[in-house]
Amino acid sequence: MKKLILSFVLIIISALSTNLYAQSPEESCQIIESEIKGEIYTKFSVNSNGILTYVWTDAKSDSETILTIDLTKITVSKDVSSRGYRVFINCIDGIDCINERGKLGSDETYYADFSKTYLPAKDEKGMVTIYNQMMFLLKLGNANR
């Protein structure tokens, strides 16, 4: 009887201490999108080559760009500052691995490469959730190559 109770308690503790992890890349992308502050980043997806894509939209400037990130070439970190809760995406060795293209204001052919970007979270829980999902996608992206 003691073993049964101990097992039950351990199962409950492990369930409560486990952060939310996705079971698939699609689910992970949905979780990330739901935790983004301001819903400015949408349509997250990951292909079989470990490439993350998502859309940035700004209604004020009538802009919409697609960001493409090679998950095999990045690191992820969390940051809390006066600017809010953010998950930073940094290219390894500072080499540009983040690509943005689309419509930026009146420029229909905007194109740029970056070595870092960030995803703004609604709160601390959202920041941790986005970070965990990005780590899941990083592992998946590196395993697929």
Would you kindly provide a written description of the structure presented here, covering whatever features stand out?
The longest helix is centred in the last third of the chain and has 21 residues, at 124-144. The chain has helices at residues 2-17, 25-35, 124-144; strands at 41-46, 51-58, 63-70, 74-81, 84-91, 98-104, 107-114, 116-121. It is built from three helices and eight strands; from the N terminus they run ααββββββββα. The chain has one domain. With 145 residues, it is an alpha+beta fold. The strands form two sheets. It has a five-stranded antiparallel sheet with strand order 1-2-3-6-7. Strands 4-5-8 form a three-stranded antiparallel sheet, covered by helices on one side.
Shape: globular
Low confidence ranges: 15-19
Rounded to the nearest angstrom, the radius of gyration is 18 Å
Distance between the termini: 48 Å
Number of domains: 1
How many individual β-strands? 8
- The side-by-side strand order for the widest beta sheet comes to 1-2-3-6-7
Q: How confident is the prediction overall: mean pLDDT? A: 87
Classify the secondary structure makeup into a structural class.
alpha+beta
Q: Sheet bearing the most strands, described?
A: 5 strands, antiparallel
What is the ordering of alpha helices and beta strands? HHEEEEEEEEH
